[in-house]
Every structure is written in structure tokens, then in C-alpha cells.
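I'm curious: can you give me some protein's one-letter sequence along with its C-alpha cells because I've never seen that pairing?
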Amino acid sequence: MKSFLSILLFLLFFGLSLIHFYWASGGLLGFTMALPANEQGIPVLSPTTFDSIFMGIILLWFGLFYLFLLKSVVHKTLILIRTIGLWLIPIIFFLRAVGDFNYVGFFKEIKSTEFAYLDTAFYSPLCLAISLIGFTLIRLKKLR
């Protein structure tokens, strides 16, 4: 079960990083739909190429982190990093699912935009699922 969940999170994060790298290289498919917007439909964020590359790297790192869990022996100096990562990543995605109470998350106020619809239907549930899988991995690790 632990291996399956680790691989699942790796594949999710790898896919999300590829999307961000695609946007960084000038791709536009899905870009505006992924940006929170105000009630008039005007995006409240205007990410740069650097922002997309940065997020792509972070998401790729998150994926590699979960892939790293598959190793049976972890060097003692990496135990603290692993422990922090095990908790930090699910917390980040749980907070993203909850949202900022304005534009993103389950408790957003602005609900009439295309982003808001996609956020409710896909982005926030995906973040919650990533968070729950991450917390499940912590629980499974403690049971060993």
C-alpha cells in the first residue's frame, strides 16, 4: 500500500510539474483556467515564466520526495529532512484546499468564474486528496 501511494503521489506531482514547465515554455492550454479571477473574470495573479519554472521545480521536488520514500534505507542525516517533508507537503496542500477564503479553496467567496468552477470541481479536491494520501503515508509509516 505504501509503495502504491508513494508512486501515485510521484506521478501526480510529476504531471503537475510538466504542466508548469509547459506553461513556462510558452504553452497556453489551460493556463487562464488555472488562474484565480475576481468576479469580473479578471485574473488576480499574473505569473511570470520564472514563477512557472519555480513551481514546476517545487512540484517535481515534491514528487521525487515521495519516490524517495520507496528506498528501504535512508541515510541518518536525511531523516530530519524526510520527517519535515512528510509533514510539510500534506499541510501545504491541505491549506491550499481550504484556501484563502476569497479566490481559491473550498471556502472561497468568488464562485462565479471559470477558475472558481474548476477549483471547486478539480483543483481543491486534488489538493485535498494529495494531502490525505500524504497523511496516510505518515500513518502507515508509524504502523511499521
